[in-house]
Amino acid sequence: MSDAAAAQPASSEPSSLYQHGRSNVVRLAVVQALAGANSVVVFATGAIVGHTLAPTPALATLPITIFVVGMAACTLPSGAIAQRYGRRAAFLAGTVCGVLVGLLAALAVVIGSFWLFCAATFFGGAYAAVVLSFRFAAADCVPADKRPRALSLVMAGGVFAGVIGPQLVTHTMYLWMPYMFAATFLAQAGVAALSALILAGIRLPKPTAAERAGGRPLGLIARQPRFIVAVACGVVSYLLMNFLMTAAPLAMQLCGLSQESANLGLQWHVIAMYAPSFFTGSLITRYGATTIVVTGLALIGASAVVGLTGVEVTQFWVTLVLLGLGWNFGFIGASAMVLECHRPEEKTRVQSLNDFVVFGTMAFGSLLSGGLLTAYGWSTVLWLSFVPLTLAFIAIAVSRSFSPARG
């Protein structure tokens, strides 16, 4: 049996396993929209607040780096909770972190504590890690032939996050002056609490004895060429999205552009990240995950090219939109490749390992972007993005040379 075949459920599985599939996917999509606003708020404000509170400008993006560290650090514990107690328990634990990030960040702004703000963003990263596991939970809710579509439809909930997050910032950032953004973080905590109420009604099957046992050793699974390429493409897609998006709001501010224009740019960036999800799953089914990933990486490269043409509002906005589109194709395509690499009883461990590697690598990118931006400028940040892109294309080419028939 091939790895791809092993990843599919047996045909004898009872249909009752998926009886709540549609309801679960809808709930996950709604909470993706609400909880996704957490990440948007942090990315829209993190570098600005960091620049204001940090002891040195080079640390301006450290809060966002800590956010990514929180994502990486909490993927494996979240997977362990899901493996033992079920995904619903992991989801509710994540929403507790979502409430904490809002409350702690508001307090940090009021008392002027940079390090408390960093601690707050760590909980924000933990929340984001759980939210991103929704895509795999959606795939569990439906038969194998519908998994790419379920995965992408849940990610499509992020379209509304792209509206909710920036608008939340725009309409609340001046409500508690002189503590800019304090009211924003309190509002974000309220949105996280609402997400918990919706997730409380989700119905997912309890882990089986085989799932708790875990299946094959992770080392054996991780050595599969398909898994290595999937992780590499997921890393590059998310790394570069984070690398450029982290620096963009601060770069716009340093170029004399308004915070409102940065908020609007991020809004369209996040919409571009998630809007294609309505059809990304269908494209993967038709053309194969690798083709979609290659398209995504090419769009990320195009975003950097546009950014190098100038520093007007238009260039920043087009850069952010292309970056969002590229991330969607690259990351969802890579996630679909991961689904081909594990058996049902191995899913939570393998998916958590994938996310751990992706988010762990992102942490270096987000920290590096702040220092590079302040020391060398926006153009240097853009030029450096071509290095991991080239490595990803090489990995795909090598993989396809060994397996020309794979999509």
Any overview of this molecule?
- The protein has 407 residues and is mainly α.
- The protein has 19 helices and no strands.
- Helix 12 runs antiparallel to helix 19.
- The longest helix has 33 residues.
- The two termini are 18 Å apart.
- The N terminus is likely disordered.
Sum up the structure in keywords:
single chain; 407 residues; mainly alpha; 19 helices; 79% helix
Secondary-structure blueprint of this entry?
Layout: H1 3-6, H2 21-53, H3 62-85, H4 87-111, H5 114-132, H6 134-140, H7 147-156, H8 158-172, H9 182-199, H10 209-213, H11 218-222, H12 225-254, H13 259-274, H14 277-287, H15 289-307, H16 313-339, H17 347-376, H18 378-384, H19 386-402
What's this model, at a glance?
With 407 residues, this protein is an all-alpha fold. Helices cover 79% and strands 0% of the residues. It starts with a helix and ends in a 5-residue tail after the last helix.
